[in-house]
Amino acid sequence: MSGLNSTSPAVLENLNDEDGLIKIDFWGVRGSRTVTEPEIITGVGGYTSCVQVTIGDKIFVVDGGSGATNFGNWLFGELAKREELTLHMLFTHKHIDHWCGLQFFGPLFASKKLTFEITGSEENVEKFHKNVFDGDTFPVDVSMLAARVHYTPIESGAVIVVPSTYRGQPENIVIEALSVNHPGGCLGYRFTFRGKSLAVIFDHEEVGPDAPEELQQLERNLVELLRGVDLGVIECQYHEFEDEPKARYMKGWGHERVSHLIEVLKSAQVKEAILTHHDPAANPALVARIANAVHEGSGIPTTFACERMSVVL
What we know:
By secondary structure, this protein is α/β, with parallel strands linked by helices. It has helices spanning 38-41, 68-81, 106-110, 122-132, 213-226, 258-268, 284-298, and strands at 22-28, 50-55, 58-62, 85-90, 114-120, 148-153, 159-166, 169-180, 186-193, 196-201, 231-235, 273-276, 302-304, 310-312. The radius of gyration is 18 Å and the shape is globular.
C-alpha cells in the first residue's frame, strides 16, 4: 500500500500487489465539511468524501465531495490519452458534503470526450438537476455542461453488472447496492471482480435492538455489504474515549462509532479495513487512535484513509 504515513496503525501487506485487480484512490476523506486548519489536515487531508475505484478498464467514483475537484484535475490527464471516457459516478446520498465538489469538477464543463454515468437512488439522481446545477443556487445549469450526462436510478438491493476487460479478455464487474441507516437514507456499494471484493460505505449509524424491523434490516444490510470482503472502506467518524472531547459520539446524527464498528467488522469477517469520513475536528493523532482502537478491538488489520493514498487489491 502506498500513501501511508508514520501515524498509520497497520500496514496491510497483502494489498501491495502491483498486479492487482482493483485500485482504490482516496481524493477526499473528511466527513461533514471541508477542513483547512494545518494542525488538523496534515498527514490526513481536509476534503470531503470522494473515492475512485478503478477495475479493469473502468473508472468508478463513489460520491463527489470537495475532493472531487482534485480528482477532476487528475481525470483531465486520462482524457488526454483517450478518444472518449465513461466515468461511473455512484452516489451514496444527498447530503451536501458528498456532492459539493461536482460544482467544480472541471471535466464536466470542459470535455466533450466525457460521458458521466450517474447511479444512485432516484432522489439523488434528481439532485444533480435540482441542486447541483440548478442555475439558481449555483450559477451553472446542466445545459452548460460539455460532458454527456446519463442517469440510472436504483433502489436498495440492486445489482449492477458492468462489462469490462482484463488483459484483453471480457470480464464483468458486479456492483451490489444496499441501504444503510442514515438520516435521509444512504446506499453502500460492494464491488466484486475476478474473486476480489471491496465494500465502500460512508454515512451509517448503529440501529438499536428495539428499533422497528425496517431499521433492523438496514443493520443487516451493513453486515451483508461487508460480509467476507477483502477490503472494507468504511466510515468511523465518532469515538467514546473519555479523555478526548472532540469527535465524541453524537447519537442520532447518523455516524459510526468505534465500539459498534468493531462488532460489525467481526460479525462480517472482514479481511482488512480502511476508515474514512473522519470528523472535521479530529486531528491526525485522534484519527490514528480511532483506527488503532478498531484494529485492537476487532483483531482485523485496520488503518485510516489519507488523501492521495492508493490501495491495490
